[in-house]
């Protein structure tokens, strides 16, 4: 979208940095990230597979997926290895999370061929993408903003669902996972009232079942040890 730089960030994420990065992590941030980072100052290609061309014959098919807030990148790497012909765009403004993913990508030619990254506000990326260009959006364990006065900062809201609906292809999934029951209910409510999405659940227990070949995450493991039950929701773009 033209003028994306002029608008203020909607800031659905919290802090940007945690522990100080090690020297090797800083080097990857300075050398590897610029090679993979999307440049939103240039128009998005109509065919998103072009984002992954590297001078060789195209190796990415028509499907490009997004994971917003990938944390340490465990699930993103898992899916990249499962689907080597799919292009992936990972969004993570938390510097330490990006550093972990870059460590898993360094020297891995196959992975590097089908990943692009963005380290800022995901709404800027969504507004930049062409309509009906994305084969799936994943949003796992986003910041729940538990205080009522902060609920407006939850990523799932009417405006962002409009964004998802614009970029997703017909029939493409929006997948959501959380261990915070109020955010699960919030997401179900907003998606149920959005005209472009339908919950794909076919049985009452579907929300308890992890996604296919779900690898889990470190955050999820901590949540379960603390006695919180994760929910796994899939909504389909009509």
From TrEMBL:
Pathway in which the depicted protein is active: tRNA modification; N(7)-methylguanine-tRNA biosynthesis
UniProt-listed Enzyme Commission number(s): 2.1.1.33
Binding site residues for substrate: 147, 179, 217-220
Catalysed reactions, as listed in the record: guanosine(46) in tRNA + S-adenosyl-L-methionine = N(7)-methylguanosine(46) in tRNA + S-adenosyl-L-homocysteine
Residues binding S-adenosyl-L-methionine, per UniProt: 67, 92, 121, 143
A molecular function (GO) term: tRNA (guanine(46)-N7)-methyltransferase activity
Top-tier EC class: transferase
Top-level taxon in the UniProt lineage: Bacteria
Entry keywords, A to Z: Methyltransferase, S-adenosyl-L-methionine, Transferase, tRNA processing
Keyword tRNA processing (UniProt): yes
Pfam family, one: Methyltransf_4
InterPro entries listed in its UniProt record: SAM-dependent_MTases_sf (IPR029063), tRNA_(Gua-N-7)_MeTrfase_Trmb (IPR003358), tRNA_methyltr_TrmB_bact (IPR055361)
Gene Ontology cellular component annotations, sorted alphabetically: tRNA methyltransferase complex
PANTHER family: 3-DEOXY-D-MANNO-OCTULOSONIC-ACID TRANSFERASE/TRNA GUANINE-N 7 - -METHYLTRANSFERASE (PTHR23417), PENTACOTRIPEPTIDE-REPEAT REGION OF PRORP DOMAIN-CONTAINING PROTEIN (PTHR23417:SF14)
Role according to the record: Catalyzes the formation of N(7)-methylguanine at position 46 (m7G46) in tRNA.
Family per similarity comment: Belongs to the class I-like SAM-binding methyltransferase superfamily. TrmB family.
Record's protein name: tRNA (guanine-N(7)-)-methyltransferase
Gene name of the encoded protein: trmB
